[in-house]
Amino acid sequence: MASSFSSSDSLYDFVVKDGNGVKGLMDSGLSKVPQRYIQPEEERIKIVGTRKHNVSPIDLSKLKGPNHKKVVDEIVRSVETLGFFQVVNHGVPLELLESLKDSAHKFFSLSAEEKCLFSPGVSPSTKVKYGTSFVPDKEKALEWKDYISMGYTNDEDALQYWPNQCKEVALDYLKLSSKMVRKIVEILIENLGVKLEESRIEGLLGTKLVNMNYYPPCPNPELTVGIGRHSDTGITVLLQDHIGGLYVKLDKDDNNNNHGGWFEIPPIPGVLVIIIGDIFQILSNGKYKSVEHRVRTSTESRVSIALFNSPKPTEKIGPVEELVKKDGVAYYREVLFQDYINNYFTHAHYGKNSLDFAKST
Ligand SMILES: O=C(O)CCC(=O)C(=O)O
Ligand SMILES: [Fe+2]
């Protein structure tokens, strides 16, 4: 029984090292959250008084047609002020979205032994990884989350190495979402008034990863987090299920229409969330924003499926020269994406500290 863990270390071993995950912990008959998962007061998420961000999703099908300019403006404005937006008519069929959620549940309902076939060191590919929390050995409080991360190299490898329960749908999601991502990125780059070579755009979107997140039911949601506050790296396409729990941190807007702070993004069926990550804030010399976000747990299980689009490790990321000239200052230095990502994965989630790595000194 989980409740009989004699120490925090034996619990850690059971969850992290032995690969039972939070799911295994819950299945072992837990009735209250272990100390190791209890967040400090300031990181806990209170449901009472939650403010919701109820802004209509952007209809991407209208990019073709007379309203093209209006849609482009909406996208740009969202990225400049919020760092995220939601989309409908995004080119990913609704049945595929349903299958993705089903397949995530199928994978996480496997036994620990089966899931552990994808643990680091055991997994047939270094690009496929089953795990729990984010960087458990660096975290004071663990995150209430298990995940399977599927890195893309080519279709053949994906179909060979990704888990059978989800490989086909995850690959379809990657392919179809990538078309939309490409369109959005072209719009964002054009709006900066620069022209990038095709090879540079491909380089900026050259690392693709489908992550399925599983947040088991939690006996004390008020004490835990599913994912702590963080910003993403490049551009993320996120599918959340009907449970809800995604929060974004917003600045006060120019008209003081909201008071800033945390807002929940209620799930809307068929809608995808586009999350802008740090590299767009860097490239645009701060014109675009990466959005700080986090996930609440609940007494019900929740899944989310993210397609992370990031640069190739060899890509250099710095503010676009033309913008630095115009602004008279570079707010960020040029970093090798590999260095940025090494830093990203050696720290526990803590707000936008991942971006500080590239700040000019
Ligand atoms: O589960 C969610 O809604 C968000 C997931 C997320 O932020 C991430 O995987 O980076
Ligand atoms: Fe995220």
TrEMBL record:
Residues 200-311 form the Fe2OG dioxygenase domain. PROSITE patterns: FE2OG_OXY (PS51471). Signal peptide: none annotated. Gene3D superfamilies: B-lactam Antibiotic, Isopenicillin N Synthase, Chain. The keyword Iron applies. InterPro entries: DIOX_N, IPNS-like_FE2OG_OXY, IPNS-like_sf, Oxoglu/Fe-dep_dioxygenase_dom, Plant_2OG-oxidoreductases. It holds the Pfam family 2OG-FeII_Oxy. The keyword Iron applies. Transmembrane segments: none annotated. It comes from the Eukaryota. Belongs to the iron/ascorbate-dependent oxidoreductase family. This is Scopoletin 8-hydroxylase.
